[in-house]
Design goal:
Elements lengths: L1 H9 L1 H17 L5 H28 L1 H22 L17 E7 L2 E6 L12 E4 L2 E9 L4 E5 L7 E4 L6 E4 L3 H8 L1
Antiparallel strand pairs: 1-2, 2-5, 3-4, 4-5, 6-7
Length: about 180
């Protein structure tokens, strides 16, 4: 404690300087002075900038949760569209949409498989169709309680029924062998 008093006595001039500087600064930025407007503008600009940066960083760390909520909302809207409005081009009566995330992709000798994070617990059953933003992706081959294995369009034994828009001709499609050799490398 005695050392603290010695410290104060030796640095009294520095302490007095800081105290008087603080008082003069407070008087300078008094609300009625010309400098106060500039100070308040500076404080507003700086505080707003820092706040916006903080919110950007906070939002970045919450993107995964927002993405999950958007997937759920999209599935709800697809299901609503399927049941109440005109069906989408991919709609089949009696189906419902379940958003899923690809957690693994396996390519072995031209056989392309995807593993998704949804399974029997979520209502996925074998032979269910799988599609993404660009259309048909594949079909569910096997399911476990929490995961599913998807055979993609690039699998040599995969085929899908198709209907041409202009002519209305129906048939099925299979991947071309030349595409398989390119995707296997």
């Amino acid at each position: 404690m005695l050392n603290f008093f010695y410290f104060l006595r030796r640095n009294a001039s520095v302490g007095l300087f800081l105290l008087l500087s603080g008082i003069s600064f407070a008087w300078m930025i008094n609300e009625r002075s010309l400098t106060a407007g500039k100070w308040n503008r500076f404080r507003l600009e700086t505080g707003s900038y820092l706040s916006s940066r903080f919110h950007l960083i906070r939002d970045y760390f919450h993107l995964k949760e927002r993405n999950r909520l958007l997937q759920q909302e999209n599935a709800r809207l697809y299901n609503l569209q399927h049941t109440m409005l005109s069906p989408s081009p991919f709609s089949i009566p009696g189906t419902h949409y379940i958003p899923a995330k690809i957690i693994n992709r396996k390519i072995r000798s031209g056989y392309d498989f995807l593993i998704i994070d949804k399974g029997e617990k979520h209502g996925i059953v074998p032979q269910s169709g799988v599609y993404g933003a660009d259309g048909v992706t594949g079909v569910v081959a096997r399911t476990s309680k929490h995961f599913s294995k998807i055979i993609t369009l690039y699998h040599p034994e995969f085929s899908v029924d198709v209907k041409l828009k202009k002519s209305g001709i129906e048939g099925f499609t299979k991947p071309r062998p030349s595409l398989l050799s390119l995707s296997a490398h």
